[in-house]
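Lab notebook, bench 4. The sequencing result for the construct came back, and we need a structural model before the next group meeting so we can plan mutations. Quick request posted to the team channel:

Model the 3D structure of this chain.
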Amino acid sequence: MQRRTPRWLVAGALAAVGALALTACGSGFNSSSGGTSSGLTSSKKALTVLIGSSGDAETAAVKSAVADWSSTSGTKATVTAANNLAQQLSQGFAANKPADVFYLSADAVAGYAANGSLLAYGDQLKNKSDFYPTLVKSFTYNGKFYCAPKDFSTLALEINDDMWKAAGLTDADVPTTWDQLEAVAKKLTTSKHVGLGIGGEYARVGAFMTQAGGNLMNDDSTKATANSAANVTGLTYAQKLAKDGVLKYAKDLGAGWGGEAFGKGLAAMTIEGNWITGGMQADYPNLKYSIHELPAGPAGKGTLQFTNCWGIAADSPNQTAALKLVEKLTSAGDQLAFSKAFGPMPSIQSAAGDWKSANPALVPFLDAAAYAHNVPTAKGAADVVTDFNSKIENLKTADIKAILDAEQKNLEALVK
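Done. Here's the predicted structure in token form:
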């Protein structure tokens, strides 16, 4: 099986590359373009849209939605699916020829916003109040709401139904607390598979930190909180599961990510986002599994969320049309169509009911939006997370307090 990289990870690479490649500073308004009463540029030029696609289904869905808008608005627009979104986006800015509208990950916003490449248009969106508040925080930099969240994902617990029954477990045993998770993980661990197999990275073990009441940074990434007592508690719990042999990283199971370990039967449970459904359908269509909210920790329920936005270039000669396009692409109709085509959850609250009705098995992912926490989005935070990941590679023997103290210093340096 070929490893499938979740879309948020692909887009997340923007931050790492962007930190090195953000060499061009946007000038804001193009002198050849007319202004409007809203302060946005306007022209008859066609729009260019650059996306990082998960596959043919996503590309076709976005092209169809943009074509529908073009036929109604009278403004031509072309969609390009990048081979390397991070590279092509940064090259466009460096050459002063950026796409008008583009996918942008939350951890890349700060870098592009800081050098003037992005248009801060969020407050002009007609549907601004409909977006989940925590998603708005993901795309707010220095108090400005830069771009509309295009969709999002959360983490949930996936359970192999056959292994669950073989261990003598029933629906009543689905874990809702840490103690219960530990108990079922022990029952599910055999010589052939581990009870819980996850990716060995912050984007998975960080969920335990949130359940203990912590995270690497606060939700708007203005304060470092890495070495809090809550984070020590969360990682110590995960470490105990690892020492007991009931939790293993996917790489230690011979898999590329948690979904592969789960699909191959190397783990009875995993923690992944809703992108796992596509991977299971494509590579393990006969696997019977169920999806549940993550168990609550000492501070209650907690999970991580991952999101991207529709960025608009500060140098776009037709920002007025770009804004209208984004409003169409983030409407309930378009977002529900995208969800049906390639799986993401709508970023607007008004679409929640219809999405749940259409995706009853996936409801735990959207229910988690009420208590989901953002990954760090401060400029340079991606590098700190990479460092953190390298330090928790061997969770069983990791010095948790020392690791968190080091990352606290690293993150504090970013927000001084």
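The first strand starts at residue 34 and ends at 35.
Will bring this to the meeting.
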